[in-house]
Automatic annotation (TrEMBL):
<dbReference type="InterPro" id="IPR003425">
    <property type="entry name" value="CCB3/YggT"/>
</dbReference>
<keyword id="KW-0472">Membrane</keyword>
<feature type="transmembrane region" description="Helical">
    <location>
        <begin position="14"/>
        <end position="34"/>
    </location>
</feature>
<dbReference type="Pfam" id="PF02325">
    <property type="entry name" value="CCB3_YggT"/>
</dbReference>
<feature type="transmembrane region" description="Helical">
    <location>
        <begin position="66"/>
        <end position="87"/>
    </location>
</feature>
<keyword id="KW-0812">Transmembrane</keyword>
<comment type="similarity">
    <text>Belongs to the YggT family.</text>
</comment>
<protein>
    <submittedName>
        <fullName>YggT family protein</fullName>
    </submittedName>
</protein>
<dbReference type="GO" id="GO:0016020">
    <property type="term" value="C:membrane"/>
</dbReference>
<keyword id="KW-1133">Transmembrane helix</keyword>
Amino acid sequence: MVALIQTLLLALDIYWWLIIASAIFSWLFAFNVINSRNQFVATIGDFLYRVTEPALRPIRRIMPDLGGIDISPIILLLILFFVRQLIITTIAPALI
């Protein structure tokens, strides 16, 4: 059971970094720092969008319009942090 919890925590950590990478990529794309016509860059952007958008879309739907500021990745990171801490402090000690 410990292996399952550790695998779940690793998956949460990987998703955490994918959300950060997606946010950084969107900033670089918005400020035209990266070449969006490059096939490799477009593939990375598409991958990050497809991985993070299903979790970010419901948050964006609930959040009020803040103009050009998108804080949905921050909210999702806070939710992931809460779930990770819940697993570490509540579920894991009960199973060990």
